[in-house]
Amino acid sequence: MKGQEWYQADDVAEDYDTKRFSRGGRLIDQREKQAVLNALSPVEGRRILEIACGTGRFTSMLAKRGADVTGIDISAAMLQQGREKAQQNGVPDHIEFIRGDAARLPFPDNYFDSVFAMRFFHLADTPASFLSEMSRVSREQVFFDTFNRYSTRTVYNWLLPMGSRLYSENEVNRLLSGASLTLVDESHDFILPYGFYRQIPDEIASTFREADTTVGSTTIGDRLASVSYWNTRVV
Q: Where in this chain does the record put each Methyltransferase type domain (predicted)?
């Protein structure tokens, strides 16, 4: 996975949420959480696995809604942040954090009702193997997001130290077929890339976000979107 050593550093984990989800980044956090809830709900009583759970943004959210959540990540520092967040939210008994490799998940087949990954596939060096593992351990559903090849993200990607893996719709469809997944629903968003929103204050970002969603709702919006959400079912 790209940037493995950087991602596991203690100082990166400590500042991860602040750098990405403060200022205009709050709009990104809100949209991603809504995307997860839209895809996975209702979650009460369901067994859910999050791949690359990081600091536990989604695990605590789902546990507070009654899910039994397992989060797996390669970073011990990120997992510690997740445990602290679970304590703060009063849901430590409903979340299990495991340090491990998403390419070799330590769970039996069909163990979870749903498996999801956010902010993961843009760093994946072998996306097919990761997606196949997610499909193997899921009984019903796999949900994930990708950054899109034909979008403003392409330009922004040049400025990033690690870059990102970008996907075309055809590539995603091939990955789904290889992992025995069928597409149920897809949605596309953020014509302006994430990095733009993170650089500006929340109140200014809100104005740009309104314009972004207005253009995104037109016939060309899906083709310009930098992010896609893929909701699939296990065949």
A: 49-140
The phi, psi pair for 190, rounded to 5°, reads 60, 80
Question: d(Cα 40, Cα 139) in Å, to the nearest integer?
Answer: 13
Question: What total of structural domains would you count in the chain?
Answer: 1
Best CA proximity match to 164, nearest among 195, 189, 141: 195
Q: With contact defined as beta carbons under 8 Å apart, do 139 and 113 qualify?
A: yes
- What's the pLDDT tens digit per position in 31-59? 999 999 999 999 999 999 999 999 999 99
Q: Which domain holds residue 180?
A: 4-234
User: What's the pTM value of the predicted model, to 2 decimals?
Assistant: 0.91
Q: Among 120, 3, 131, 117, which Cα is nearest to 49's?
A: 117
**Would you tell me how many other CB atoms lie within 10 Å of the CB of residue 77?**
18
